[in-house]
Amino acid sequence: MTLYAVIFYVLAAVILVATLLAITRRNLVHAVVYLIISFFGTAMVYYLLGAPFLAALEVIIYAGAIMVLFLFIIMMLRVEKMAERPFSLGQLLPPVFLGLVFLELVGLLAFTDPGGRVVLEAATASPRTFGRFLFQRYWLAVEIVSFLLLIVLIGALFLGRASGRRRPEGTEGDS
Amino acid sequence: MPELYYLGAAGILLLLSMVLQPNARRDFFIALFVAAFGVPVAVASVKLSGTLFAEAYRVDLFSQVFKVILAGGFFLVVSLCTELEGVEERHHLEFYLLLTTSTLAMMLLVSSVELLTIFVALELSSYSLYLLVPLRRGYDTAVEAGIKYLLVGTSASAVMLFGFACLYGVIRTTRFPEIIQVLPAVIGQPLATIGLFLALCGFFFKLALFPFHFWAPGVYQGAANQVAAYIATTSKVAAIAILTRVVSLCGGNGEYMAKVLVALSIASMTLGNLAAIRQRDMKRLLAYSTIAHAGYVLIGILSLSQGGYAGAIFYSLAYLIMKFTCFLVLVKVAYDGSDLQVAQLAGLHRRSPLLAMALMVGLFGLAGIPPTVGFTGKLLVFTAAMERGHFALVLIAMINVVISLYYYLLVVRAAYLLEPDEDLPRIRLSVPVTLLLWVLVLVMVAAGIFPTYLLQAADGAARALVGG
Amino acid sequence: MIVPYGHVLMLAGMLFALGVVCTVARRNLVMILLGVEIMLNAAGIAFVAAALRWQRLEGQAFVLFIMAIAAAEVSVGLALIIRAYRRTGSVDEDTYDLLKW
Questions:
Q1: Which CATH architecture has domain A1-79?
Q2: Does C54 touch chain B (CB under 8 A)?
Q3: Structural domain boundaries in chain A
Q4: pLDDT tens figures, C49-64
Q5: Do A109 and C33 form a contact (C-beta atoms < 8 A)?
Q6: Closest by alpha carbon to B240, among B197, B195, B302, B178?
Q7: Model-level pTM greater than 0.90?
Q8: Which ipTM value was assigned to this complex?
Q9: Residues in chain A closer than 8 A to C48 (CB atoms)
């Protein structure tokens, strides 16, 4: 049990517990905060598994931008205290069952698959290597994603704005 | 190459949308011109071949044939937008922009031979559609449909990504030429099979195949008619293309996967056909019909043979034409962009005999009645499956064809035999639309009787896929 | 020598399962979207692990794009939710039953 292994298992526990708490909260803000903790854990796992650039990005984009956007919207819509009925058993059962089936499947795969026992060697990809690799081999994907972000930006702008402009004029179920 | 053309077109539309004042007629003509010009560009580049971008992108007959189909589908859908009452006027250019973007993304998708590129192109096309669906005037259902579409779509994407991750974990690479070499040997490993199946889930979503089909009725109903037409036709064609490409990676070895696909195909067909019987809303009916047809196409794909792939390609083209005809009739009858009920078709044969006939031919084609092109498509797909021994599957499929005939006939009956409560006006069709209708009807029948030219194209495309 | 690849895959799998549960079982639209985020994150972990297993960088590139797409998805999703909220005043899934599915 190397030090890396211990760190990994601790992080794994943190991630799983935080996520579990996140999905069972009634208060949305609490859920998002737990998820932020989970994402921080994920970032550290990335660092451990040799992707420091991705770890930084995970904190900046995922925990930083996306979750903050969530918080922003939640607070703007004032839904954080929305009373949600606790799960009824009938509602909870199928997904949990599915989840368990999936888990068993993955466990099966991970432990019976010959590849599953390969022990990961520690290695790190420096940002420079990563960047060079990205732009050499995946240039097309980068371009497509930039285009996608542009389109989404326009689209989100449209969706958000159009409804806002109509409201002062009085709603008629229109727009 | 057509992608560059569409990229340029999207850029132009983007600039125009920021600069110009909205004007429905003019916007329509711009879009129509753009779309029309795209078709010859696509046809002209059919013979190109090669690989680009460090083998992430491959241009071969398979991809080019599909690009022609996609360009054609795009043009057809844009030609539906003469009035575009369903979308607010100031959103028209964005509407066309998003359609162009989606087509562009689909063209990129059919040429992608690398997992990351596929993922990104798929997302681009999906997001354009997620944005298109809520863009409808006066209907609350549109936003709801948009949300459901987005949530189901992104969940399917997430599943697909996990599948890609599993695959990548087994096969060291994400590029198809290398995967083809490695996968058949390794497909026995559970991680690879599960990974492949999860990966396919993303495409099942786009194709509206069970179990990711449940978005289709709601989205078709909630979206504007033209958007529904686009999703039903062009988007499905792209899904078929990429599904075929990915399934063909197995190289004829995936018995396990074929079994799973058989199950899904049966579920899809049966569910789609049975649910369609009870539908009163035309678009929902067409949505369930789409789900059923996804099952039929899958029969061709899962036979894992060149003939099967050719059948699927042919079927996708036939399906595009037939579904589009139905939607064309729908758009013309519901000229104010509303949701059409089957009962509203009453008396169509008097209001516009041409529309009624086109609808009838289209629906018969979808049902698979000879001599329409739909029948030929089904024939191809069924024979390919039987060659591989899937007799039970074909039998169930044929039972499904009979079931589907029932609800298609219901619609035809409404158009021809029912009388409306009040006297509805004759539907006037402009000359281009009349011409288009005649062309579609002729194509549907002629291609059914003399399919050789299209068959050659489909065969060539399939050969490029398998041999390349 | 860190951990066997299988263990990391288990972590990713469990995380993915949690995401699925969140998406399917919660009735609040924002939580459903959050569940999708969890799923995407889990896929990211799986990718990084696979990348380390083969000592190649493609997996990491994938994760970068996953993050970009996740950001895009959240913007569109939240914009739609805002729009729906303004129309109907709630983000509870049950209020959205105009379209039966």
A1: Up-down Bundle (1.20)
A2: yes
A3: 1-79, 125-160
A4: 888 888 888 888 889 9
A5: no
A6: B302
A7: no
A8: 0.92
A9: 45-46, 49-51, 54
